Amino acid sequence: MRALGPGAPVLAFDVGGTDIKSALFDADGTALGLRRTPTPIVEGDRTQALLERLDVLAAELRTTHPEVVPQAVGLVVPGIVDADAGIGIFASNLGWHDAPLRDLASARLGLPVAFDHDVRAASWAERRLGGARDYADAVVLVIGTGIAGALLVGGVPYTAGGYAGEIGHSPIADGPVCACGARGCLEAVASAGAIARRYREATGITPEGAKDVIARAAAGDEVAAEIWNSALDALTMSLAQLTAVVAPQAVVIGGGLSRAGGALFDELRSRLAARLSFHRIPVLVPAQLSGNAGLLGAALRARELT
């Protein structure tokens, strides 16, 4: 994992629907005790279960590294997040609604807590340390099982009370129905999960993920080619809309689909150029911080409190 550089020691937690990444960052910015643990799935008050898990993880990190005394905590979570108010507005897979997570975590851990959305925090890490560091106006797009996004405007995240950046749920077609309940969301057509699902539904064959569908398309599989082409068209449409409205200097793309390399980046570059005219076409940049961007972003946010 990339080091943060010198600064205050902090605890950092990146909470996901499946697991929690946790680490203690020392004064040099080195991550100590980095680990993944399952996100608690319980009946009843899942917020309380999460706080209990964070408390245990923090105690373990402090016990293992007693020489490092954290001064703050960074906590990032998925869903709709109002970072300024410290509230997890809604997270369907984690079962909370209007939960004052920042204040609850601070009371539980005995430290000030910086609270943010996981992808916004990842975008901040990419801005400070990774692919977006040369661009004040950028879109960070994470394409994996779903599609998540974040906007950087003037070098800082644009949040709109937690509702900005839901690029995966921007409508680009009349269908199919998305898991969110809307129709034609980008995520339902162009995420890695959607690409694999659509191929399975069309052929009865279960591919080994989106990369397998892309490989089949390159080998002449017409069904795979049609699905991959429609995913590229959907991504192009979404990026073209963002370019026309926000005019980012760069789009930083991470997540599993970013590992498709030229099959993704070269195609998007040529398709964007063909669709747009006078617009400033953004540079397409691979994310550099991989799956640790959210945790690094959490640590960076925590240091801002010290």
UniProtKB/TrEMBL annotation:
Coiled coil: none
Highest taxon, organism lineage: Bacteria
Pfam families assigned to the protein according to its UniProt record, in alphabetical order: ROK (PF00480)
PANTHER family according to UniProt: BIFUNCTIONAL UDP-N-ACETYLGLUCOSAMINE 2-EPIMERASE_N-ACETYLMANNOSAMINE KINASE (PTHR18964:SF149), ROK (REPRESSOR, ORF, KINASE) FAMILY (PTHR18964)
InterPro entries assigned: ATPase_NBD, ROK
Family of this protein: Belongs to the ROK (NagC/XylR) family.
Protein name per Swiss-Prot or TrEMBL: ROK family protein
